[in-house]
Specification:
With 295 residues, the chain is an alpha/beta fold. The protein is 35% helix and 24% strand. The chain is built from 11 helices and 13 strands.
């Protein structure tokens, strides 16, 4: 995806603007953003459900459009809200999809997936719970061993055991050399399985980097409880601390000074308790997303 911009009809503001993304073989790319940031539009553009206003989208190093059959055959897609045909069983649906795959379909791998996800294959899809519909959606995305997986909220509705099975499938696909593009609201999940992340805000990519770099760059955070509420204002105005979150009498901060000097600054305030911890990806994301200005 190179310099892609998309305007919806009648809108003066683009849904995505000059968006460039590269997902490499054998890589899990986590795509993050708040509701309305442009994640769904990006996925629809990748799937050719929408056409860009400008820019280009290439697959597997070629100029071929996504709607061409021989490209789509190598893509596995899971939408954010799985909708399955009614009045058919999961087995009938998956068998039909397998028939469409023809010689590219791996019968043994399909069987492994249905067993791994404990799939209720002989129930009509319109009687299944959200979690069991999600399992069928995942199987149809993985079963032909695609070169590219585009997954929108893939573990939605899954219990923790099934989530672990999904992570196993992701690792297997990665080892096969598949490129995996994953949109998720679960930042813990993104941190666990992704190699790289991109953050989109108001249609623009405002951050992109390796998960390993995010982890390496983490700074310790201090949870500070104060006796005097007025001291919160002093902390907020201090150049020696970055405020991450605050409540009535508790502040989460990152010191910008060496440890001894930072503790010296705190000694001037009415600190009654303090806990030292390391920020997780959610803290990093929220701080970045709320304060970083687009270039």
């Amino acid at each position: 995806m190179q310099e892609v911009t998309k305007y919806y009809h009648g809108s003066k503001k683009p849904a995505v603007e000059k968006l460039s993304l590269v997902i490499n073989p054998g890589e899990v790319y986590g795509f993050l953003g708040s509701n309305g940031a442009g994640k769904s539009t990006t996925i629809r553009l990748l799937m050719d459900f929408l056409r860009p206003t400008s820019g280009s989208i290439r697959f597997f190093g070629s100029e071929t459009d996504a709607h061409v059959t021989n490209v789509r055959a190598h893509i596995g897609y899971l939408p954010g809200d799985v909708s399955l045909p009614k009045k058919v069983t999961g087995r009938e649906l998956l068998t039909h999809l397998a028939t469409l795959q023809g010689s590219a379909f791996d019968t043994q791998y399909y069987k492994e997936l249905t067993e791994r996800f404990e799939t209720q294959l002989d129930k009509r899809t319109d009687t299944l719970s959200k979690g069991n519909r999600q399992k069928i959606g995942l199987i149809q995305a993985f079963m032909h061993k695609p070169r590219l997986l585009i997954l929108d909220e893939p573990t939605s509705g899954l219990d923790p055991l099934m989530q672990e099975q999904f992570y196993i499938c992701i690792n297997e696909a990665k080892q096969r050399g598949a490129a995996i593009f994953l949109s998720s609201h679960s930042l813990g999940e993104v941190e666990k399985i992704c190699d790289r992340i991109g953050i989109i805000k108001e249609g623009c990519l405002v951050y992109e980097g390796l998960i390993a770099e995010v982890i390496k760059s983490r700074k310790p955070t201090w949870s500070i409880r104060l006796e005097k509420i007025s001291d919160i204002a002093l902390l907020k105005n201090s150049p020696h601390f970055t405020i991450l979150r605050e409540t009535k009498n508790e502040v989460i901060v990152q010191p910008t000074l060496p440890l001894t000097k930072a503790l010296g600054e705190l000694s001037k305030l009415s600190v009654v308790a303090m806990d030292i911890q390391h920020a997780d990806l959610e803290d990093e994301f929220m701080h970045y997303y709320e304060t970083r200005k687009q270039s």
